[in-house]
Amino acid sequence: MTIQSAFAGLVAAIRSIYDAREAANVAHLVMEHITGLGKLDRVVHKDADLSPAQETQYQQAITQLLEHRPVQHITGKSWFYGLELIVSDQVLIPRPETEELVEWILLDHPSKPALRLLDVGTGSGSIPIALKKQWPMADIWAMDISACAISMATRNASLQHTPIRFLHQDVLSPDAFKVLPSLNIIVSNPPYIPEQERAGMQTQVEAFEPSIALFVPDRDPLRFYRAIALLALEKLEPGGKLYFEIHESYGADVVNMLKENGFADVRLKQDMFGKDRMVRAVKK
Description:
Elements: H1 3-14, H2 20-35, H3 39-44, H4 52-66, H5 71-75, E1 77-80, E2 83-86, H6 96-108, E3 116-120, H7 126-134, E4 139-144, H8 147-159, E5 165-168, E6 183-188, E7 193-194, H9 203-206, E8 215-216, H10 223-235, E9 236-245, H11 251-260, E10 264-270, E11 276-282
Parallel strand pairs: 3-4, 3-6, 4-5, 6-9, 7-8
Antiparallel strand pairs: 1-2, 9-11, 10-11
């Protein structure tokens, strides 16, 4: 089987679950993972045969993709803000919308300041690692309830040469605040999808990404936002900023909750798709 025929066969095999453009993108990622060759090099070597080991990988990848496993779990990596991160089914795959949250924070602080920042629910470490790359003098902390997530985020930070202080901690615990210093920025992309929406989600997400990073009880969709707001009231310095990624249906609720807790300059921002996706607030 040549590289060219393998690519064509992969696209054809997964067209039942992906549209044409997405199938091609997925196939390119899988073929680069299997061959170690970028797109241009694969064109140059299109008539080269896959080795027996590569053919085995190829068949396994098709089987996994047809089971709706995310391609990032097959390749073991994902890209975020221009950085290659390792991922697995123990962490949420970084999303483009979260890159917009990072961009908002950076635009608000163009001087690359030496700030103290906390990311709550860090997962793969995508947010703090991206910010540390841009702000090398910043003192950045990150917490997560999952020991597996902390381990993976630590590995990613090491691979990207971005020193970050990681904490294995539950933000809902009364002990969450104790070891933290005073902060200039708190950012979080917490779980925010109500359980009632689980049935309508893509299988790639619902079946293969960690529920603990996705879902909240239907009766209390703002539970993490309230807890993090309390953390911000205690640990943010006056004038410090709190940034959230949010569910598009709960923008007004998050804004009102923050105003009721005394935050100033509360702003709701839409993402690239025109959906309410981010909120920023300032501690008085």
